[in-house]
Amino acid sequence: MNILVVRLGALGDIVHAMPAVAAIRRAHPGARIDWLVEAKHRAIVDLVTAIDRTIALERPSVDAWVAVTRQLRATAYDIAIDFQGLLKSAVLARASGAARVVGFSIWHLREKTARPFYSASAPAEGAHVIRNNLHLLRVLGIEDEEITFPIVDIVSPALDELRTRVNSRPFALINPGAAWPNKRWPADRFGELATFLREASGLVPVVLWGPGEELLADAVIAASGNAAVAAPATRVPDLVGLSRAAALVVSGDTGPLHIATAVGTPTVSIFGPTNPDRNGPWSEGDVSVSRFDRCVCHYDRKCHAPRWCLEDVSVAEVCAAVQQRLAGRAHG
Is CATH 1.10.287.70 correct for 2-140? Predict the structure, then answer.
């Protein structure tokens, strides 16, 4: 059997699709499973041990679409599963030439124009997107509630460099960045949190940063009175390696948070416009500080309210969440 998984992005959403892909592998251990993803997110899919091949959509252009369609059609797929629910992902799933194309029902699609491209659909019945993805597999006769993340073990030069910098002391990762501006808790508060982590918990606070976030990391470190240190430059595999080695990760709703939870690292997360019950960490021990119930800009990339909801999240509240999570780890 040949199976095509379609989840083009983004980083956290790809992580949330991994348990469903693992379930497909358990149900069909001899199947060929390929994953179609946008090239900019390929690095995380390349780490998934449950698949046979990563197929990348190189660019959002007609030429790239034609090229990837030819590549897909070279394999006679029995099933294509669209976990994304967008028009473009549905069109690509159908263009693969798969005998069956499966996606979410029209009432649970992000773009309802995707529905005509499916030959079968299922409702998104779970509270969390991970459960939604697992339940989509029921169309294929797969009943599996197990949540596992088949991510390969990483050898990370960035982790080796960081351990040298911190003299192999235990460390916590702080991730202040996010693609959505209204998901970013203020840098000065992350800095105060970093000071607390070092003084009260004995952890070296390490600030993650991505392309274009150097100044943000510098602001957090400055606000900490240099209690925090900057992480080395990281690629996605390095994020996996650093997260596995960290004692704790503190982040907003963004890819590094979901990677950390996937590899089993304790997390404290800060949520505003998105719902932690739907998109947040799924481990019972993890702690989310949320303002979703007060936010009036749900799933909007920019805040339009008179007062930004994350302004109401105090340093003391996040520090208390850190203490709760670390205590849970100590007694777990």
Answer: no
